[in-house]
Amino acid sequence: MLLNIEIKGVQFSNKGAELMLEAILQQLDVHLGEYHLTLSPGRNLPYVKRAKLGAWQKLSFRRGKLDLTGILAKLPTKIRNFLKRYGIVTEADVDVILNASGFAYGDQWPMADLRNTAKEIKRFKALGKPYIILPQALGPFQREELKEFAEVLINDTALTFARDDTSFAECEKLNKSNKLFQSPDFTALLEVQQFNTTEQQSVCLIPNNKVVSKFNHANAEQQKNAYFDFWIGTANFFIDNGFFVKVLNHEGKEDRDICNAILEAVDNEQIALIDGLNSTEIKALIGSCDAVVSSRFHGCVSALCQGVPCLATSWSHKYEMLYGEYGLSENVIDFGLERQELTNKLNHFLNDLTNQASVCLLHAEQVKEQNKKMWQQVVAIIKS
To answer: Coil, helix or strand for 284?
Structure first.
């Protein structure tokens, strides 16, 4: 009987989350060949796109503290078999859960997310089914009310992978098991078809609405003007140096609004909006560019792992940790730099592209080897 594997924390609107889904599917295809895939319905996981992947639709219900998912799993077998005719399964039909939430558990996120995940982990542990936390940013867990659920996340899973040094250190404070490991973002392994390139040098600019979202930073909205000035100054710099500027919408309407504002302000024939690509097309596009400036984490990953020099602006520790892995810590910059400071930084970056590409590729090979080791551990658990 084929294993039924549920993948959680992924979606189609956020292209980083979609990229993680594609990366997981590619590895499951390699290591397992045949299996059943399950995805839960969601606003950013519409039925049509789930159906194209041949995914079972999971029957679940969560509203605040009310979580009926475990109860629905206790439906009689006859009813569950009937639901399968319509492509619907319950938690009882799932053999393995792979959680690829990216960055969803810690002090800055709603407690309900971690609480519901902890309950799910306990249910799977009681049934002897593996629940695996794939590499992601975790913590901090300073809020007392979070620690109980964080301990479950770290100790009651089959495997938990923290993505970086800071995340691992936060998890280690609560670790009482031998199931906690560290491994970098796993999308580096995802192979994509090469994108058509032009003779003219190009740079890809990838803004992120979260950088100036009050949800993530109390004073973020006051920084909006500085953030727009950063992108306008960066776009003009590369245009002045003979580059074609591709402003990429990496996620939804809010990012698109920022992209359009940049294009309107720069108003040059050497700049264009890139929109409507899926995650693998985005990675291929990034791989075709000569340089990238990104506020999106997976925009940075997709550049670095393909040897494309990339500057980043940061809104969480995961950026600094990523660039430490790739030996380019100085490439995480402050978008609030004065114009001359920004110009100096961009000039240094531009003059160092060849060396940076070599550094990226060297570290990318190391990251990919760690990715392979992580998947060996995951597959061993799935097959056990």
So the answer is: helix
Distances (CA, A) of 116 to 45, 214, 342: 19, 25, 44
For residue 60, what pLDDT is reported?
86
Which structure tokens are listed for 74? 């206790």
Closest CA to 292 of 203, 200, 196: 203
User: Residue 132: which H helix or E strand, with range?
Assistant: strand 131-138
**Residue 74, class by beta-carbon neighbours within 10 Å (0-12 exposed, 13-18 middle, 19+ buried)?**
exposed
| Euclidean distance between CA atoms 155 and 176, whole angstroms | 6
Q: What is the pLDDT of residue 214?
A: 66
**pLDDT at 65 (0 to 100):** 74
List Cβ neighbours of 114 (8 Å cut-off, separation of 6 or more). Answer: 105, 146, 149, 150, 153
In angstroms, rounded to a whole number, what is the distance separating the alpha carbons of residues 160 and 141?
15
Closest CA to 166 of 315, 317, 301, 312: 317
For the stretch 12-66, pLDDT in tens is 999 999 999 999 999 999 999 999 999 998 889 999 999 999 999 999 887 777 7
Q: Could you report the per-residue pLDDT of 181-235, keeping only the tens digit for each?
A: 999 999 999 999 887 776 789 999 999 998 887 655 666 667 888 999 999 999 9
**φ, ψ (nearest 5 deg) of residue 137:** -75, 130
From the candidate CATH numbers 3.40.50, 1.10.238, 1.10.3470, 3.40.1620, the one assigned to the domain spanning 4-188+366-383: 3.40.50
Query: What are the domain boundaries of the chain?
Result: 4-188+366-383, 202-364
